[in-house]
Amino acid sequence: MPKVTAADIIARGFRGEQFGLTPGDAVAFAAYLDPLLEDAGTWASHQYGAAYASALHLDALRLKNAEAEWVTAELWRRRIAFVDGNAAFALENDERATVYAKLASEAAASAETWLLLASTATGTLGSSIGGVVVESGRHVSTTSRTQVLA
């Protein structure tokens, strides 16, 4: 289950009418967002690993932000397609496509950054724990498997 909600995306300023839905129909827009939210949750949980479901506090917020940015990037890509597909507002010689593509790229990079922040804080992104014992001096332990005498 994703950590980001339709309300979070709506709070970012997206509206259904930007994607051809009936103006002011929050229910239809929430239904439009549901598959995207699920995909964002799948992406984040796959990247973050098994600890995704139990992430709490700051890590949960970071994951939520990563998912929100992932959805934002996808919505900007969809906005390009919607505007370009609209005969009255086709993007030929229009800078909106460039602006939207830049916003999508920035949101995707931000999603990766939020995910990295969550992952490095808990060590879930390819990290491990190890220990080393160093013996020095004239008297090296006789229980050591490897002894180096200088």
Beta-strand residue fraction: under 5%
Tell me the structural class: mainly alpha
Proportion of helical residues = 55-70%
Could you say which overall geometry the principal axes of the C-alpha atoms support?
globular
Tell me what the structure shows.
By secondary structure, the protein is mostly helical. 57% of the residues lie in helices and 0% in strands. It contains four helices and no strands. The chain has helices spanning 6-11, 26-48, 57-85, 96-122. Helix 2 (26-48) crosses helix 3 and helix 3 packs antiparallel against helix 4 (96-122). The longest helix has 29 residues, at 57-85. The model is unreliable at 126-136 and 144-150 (pLDDT under 50).
Task: Sum up the structure in keywords.
150 residues, disordered C terminus, globular, mainly alpha
Helix-strand blueprint:
Blueprint: H1 6-11, H2 26-48, H3 57-85, H4 96-122
Overview in brief:
The chain is mainly alpha-helical.
